[in-house]
EngB-type G domain-containing protein (Cannabis sativa), 304 residues
Amino acid sequence: MLLRNRLLSLQFTSLLSPSSSYPRKTKPFFLSFGNALSSSARPHTSEHVSASKTPTGSSFSEAAKFLRTFMFVPPGVDPEEVTEDMVLAGSNIVIGPYAGDSKIKEVEFVKSSGKAKDCPKDNRPEFAILGRSNVGKSSLINALVRKKEVALTSKKPGKTQLINHFLVNKSWYIVDLPGYGFAKVSESARTDWSSFTKGYFLNRDNLVAVLLLVDASVPPQKIDLDCANWLGRNKIPMTFVFTKCDKMKVGKGKRPDENIRNFQQLIAENFPKHPPWIMTSSVTGLGRDELLLHMSQLRNYWDQ
């Protein structure tokens, strides 16, 4: 464990180097796999329950066993054949044959829904963005689509209280969900939020994955861990998207890499395999292209 933590520290040191706004792949090869935690996305078929599903047995090499445990190995990829170039920088995500065109050419707001049953019924694949009210959900959406104010940003956490659907390339949705944790709303409003949001998760058959945003500039928060555990118990696919990774605090709290590592260690207590994770910053653009590529392979597999 000490060795893995040391390798992880080396990985994050390289990824957060102030000399570049974008992460660099670390070398040698094994540094890219230092204590990375992963899991498969929840599928819509029994085959997809483990995205890296392969026969178990002693025939696997130690490297392949490590990959299957700590990396997100997507469908169509043999763990024995993973190379460094297949791993997205700043993440534990392996890219496979389902990855395709990830460019966002157009985006349009479709509707806001107060109840899950009122959401669009065209069955297009969608990704739900979820997180604490001040985690940077709207900023991430605007960064992904490269258009200002596509999603409402506000200095007042809890502004979004509806399920907002944005249609991308006329083929799939980004869904902005109400933030949780710091919204200054009534107890009844918080209860309603919990009820209709959970209803959305449990009944939305075209949900490809939840992008669970976690603020990397602060220590792990219990509410984020509780949310992740609820999604896990209900077999809802998720990817941890660590936000604000550009915020290097000096002499005040811990650095993003330390907070991410501590969060992963806490998640490991309840997840034998962990969701894919990626580091992002809406300020520098860190992780934007990599996250879209990851979403493309999940979406293309879902479409099969």
About this structure: The two ends are 39 Å apart (CA to CA). The domain at 87-303 is CATH 3.40.50.300 (Rossmann fold). The first helix runs from residue 2 to 15.
